[in-house]
Amino acid sequence: MNIFRLTGDLSHLAAIIILLLKIWKSRSCAGISGKSQILFALVFTTRYLDLFTSFISLYNTCMKLIYIGCAYATVYLIYAKFRATYDGNHDSFRVEFLVVPVGGLSVLINHDFSPLEILWTFSIYLESVAILPQLFMISKTGEAETITTHYLFCLGLYRALYLFNWIWRFYFEGFFDMIAIVAGVVQTVLYCDFFYLYVTKVLKGKKLSLPA
Amino acid sequence: SQEPLRHDEL
């Protein structure tokens, strides 16, 4: 555990909690892509099946349980409790265009052709693109609430910090996981455009709105 | 068969 890994995890946790609190406090999930949230729930579910097979640390187990619990709570708020506020018309990204290729790729390129390992690989690939429905929704509506941009920033920062974590681990532990690294780079790159807007607009007190 | 891979990251 190094500082990049820890701050990455905490950034991820912050993102998840920001989103939950935003929906809970405003009693609304307007502007939030339910599809991205379902994908994240699927990501955690398929990745953390090792909760049943191996124990790594109390920290690891607790964080996994919190991530999974929050992911399902978010999906529940969007599709059940505050369903009336869900903006389904703008959440029109076709998720099968992500899930099907990602499923195929995880069967083809993995560390080990076993069910758990393929599901882990699937979750890594899927996570790298799971935010696309959310970014698509923002590009469609042309704007995002400031709190939503904080959520996205923390979520993007998390994977960027993981990249530094992997550099650290490569130098000091000789450890690297090519699947995680390549997917992590892809994931981080997808946020670059958003990072630029966040720094140039949101941090200067302006609302994030895209030119028409 | 090989030892199952352990993914210690989140």
TrEMBL record, chain A:
<keyword id="KW-0968">Cytoplasmic vesicle</keyword>
<comment type="similarity">
    <text>Belongs to the ERD2 family.</text>
</comment>
<feature type="transmembrane region" description="Helical">
    <location>
        <begin position="65"/>
        <end position="82"/>
    </location>
</feature>
<keyword id="KW-0812">Transmembrane</keyword>
<dbReference type="Pfam" id="PF00810">
    <property type="entry name" value="ER_lumen_recept"/>
</dbReference>
<dbReference type="GO" id="GO:0046923">
    <property type="term" value="F:ER retention sequence binding"/>
</dbReference>
<dbReference type="GO" id="GO:0006621">
    <property type="term" value="P:protein retention in ER lumen"/>
</dbReference>
<keyword id="KW-1133">Transmembrane helix</keyword>
<keyword id="KW-0813">Transport</keyword>
<feature type="transmembrane region" description="Helical">
    <location>
        <begin position="119"/>
        <end position="138"/>
    </location>
</feature>
<dbReference type="GO" id="GO:0000139">
    <property type="term" value="C:Golgi membrane"/>
</dbReference>
<feature type="transmembrane region" description="Helical">
    <location>
        <begin position="174"/>
        <end position="199"/>
    </location>
</feature>
<keyword id="KW-0675">Receptor</keyword>
<dbReference type="GO" id="GO:0005789">
    <property type="term" value="C:endoplasmic reticulum membrane"/>
</dbReference>
<keyword id="KW-0472">Membrane</keyword>
<keyword id="KW-0256">Endoplasmic reticulum</keyword>
<keyword id="KW-0931">ER-Golgi transport</keyword>
<feature type="transmembrane region" description="Helical">
    <location>
        <begin position="150"/>
        <end position="168"/>
    </location>
</feature>
<protein>
    <recommendedName>
        <fullName>ER lumen protein-retaining receptor</fullName>
    </recommendedName>
</protein>
<dbReference type="GO" id="GO:0015031">
    <property type="term" value="P:protein transport"/>
</dbReference>
<dbReference type="InterPro" id="IPR000133">
    <property type="entry name" value="ER_ret_rcpt"/>
</dbReference>
<dbReference type="GO" id="GO:0030663">
    <property type="term" value="C:COPI-coated vesicle membrane"/>
</dbReference>
<keyword id="KW-0653">Protein transport</keyword>
<dbReference type="GO" id="GO:0016192">
    <property type="term" value="P:vesicle-mediated transport"/>
</dbReference>
